[in-house]
């Protein structure tokens, strides 16, 4: 009431012809042309903000300073989405969702996606989070049952009828990443484990932090300085415990082994491929 009165007082102060021609009179909770030419509603800025609308200045002529033209081009209730409109502009048959728009009840969310393919509820994909190491492990598992063969293996597959431990790992790395550890001089177990960081270009991670897909090594104290030749075995961790996938020794086939009760414990570091 007070606003109406104020508005009319204001208007009488302006020559009426001028006001009606250039600035058609607006009213609180009445229509207006807002941002980007979209039809909106004249409401207090506070209520526009509260209802997540956008307002522009000088589009509700004749209303008090805090009344602005508020529009809301996107409103949504679950899978129903549309824009805020005057009910009469929504068209027949479309849903109008209340309480999503600024202004009076007649300014509502007009659902425009109703006939769109029902949105398959966007279940956030349970990220399998397969890291590179796990892919390398998966590749190595494809070699299940192939015999151990000392010095066997290259980038393409088994040689001499099989793989040895590092041949298996290097083959899987090559298959998955394209990196050729054979030609880089890293295919021998001790060369892989003892390579400098700049040559290896993979991280060495403390044994305690191992996870599936890491390369695990064996060789006494695993002392690269004094006894690199003692480092004699490598496999791929299958979990963060004691299971690995490997080509173990002559007479075995590529398989899973548990080394929990081995005489020998693993080297202090594992190599992580990503
Ligand atoms: C406005 O946005 C806030 C925060 O995103 C939300 O909680 C609230 O429900 C929205 N209000 C309307 C009317 O859309």
From TrEMBL:
GO terms for molecular function: cysteine-type peptidase activity. GO terms for biological process: proteolysis. Coiled coil: none annotated. Residues 130-274 form the NlpC/P60 domain. Residues 1-21 form the signal peptide. It holds the Pfam family NLPC_P60. Keywords: Hydrolase, Protease, Signal, Thiol protease. Belongs to the peptidase C40 family. This is NlpC/P60 domain-containing protein. It comes from Trematosphaeria pertusa. The lineage of its organism: Eukaryota, Fungi, Dikarya, Ascomycota, Pezizomycotina.
């Amino acid at each position: 009431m007070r606003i109406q009165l104020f508005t009319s007082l204001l208007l009488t102060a302006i020559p009426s012809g001028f006001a009606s021609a250039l600035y058609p009179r607006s009213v609180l909770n009445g229509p207006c042309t807002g941002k980007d030419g979209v039809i909106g509603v004249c409401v207090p800025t506070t209520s526009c903000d509260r209802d997540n609308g956008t307002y522009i200045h000088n589009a509700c002529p004749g209303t008090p300073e805090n009344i602005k033209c508020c529009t809301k081009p996107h409103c949504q209730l679950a899978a129903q989405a549309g824009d805020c409109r005057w009910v009469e502009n929504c068209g027949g048959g479309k849903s109008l969702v209340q309480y999503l728009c600024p202004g009076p009840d007649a300014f509502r969310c007009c659902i425009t996606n109703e006939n769109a393919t029902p949105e398959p509820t966007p279940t956030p994909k349970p990220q399998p989070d397969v890291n590179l190491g796990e892919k390398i492990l998966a590749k190595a598992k494809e070699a299940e049952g192939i015999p151990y063969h000392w010095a066997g293996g290259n980038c393409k597959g088994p040689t001499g009828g099989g793989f040895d431990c590092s041949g298996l790992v290097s083959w899987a790395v090559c298959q998955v990443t394209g990196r050729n550890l054979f030609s880089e001089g890293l295919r021998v177990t001790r060369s892989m484990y003892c390579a400098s960081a700049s040559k290896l270009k993979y991280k060495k991670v403390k044994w305690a932090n191992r996870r599936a897909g890491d390369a695990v090594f064996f060789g006494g104290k695993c002392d690269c300085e004094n006894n690199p030749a003692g480092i004699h075995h490598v496999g791929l961790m299958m979990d963060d415990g004691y299971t690995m996938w490997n080509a173990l020794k002559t007479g075995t086939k590529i398989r899973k082994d548990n080394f929990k009760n081995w005489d020998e414990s693993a080297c202090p570091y594992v190599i992580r491929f990503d």
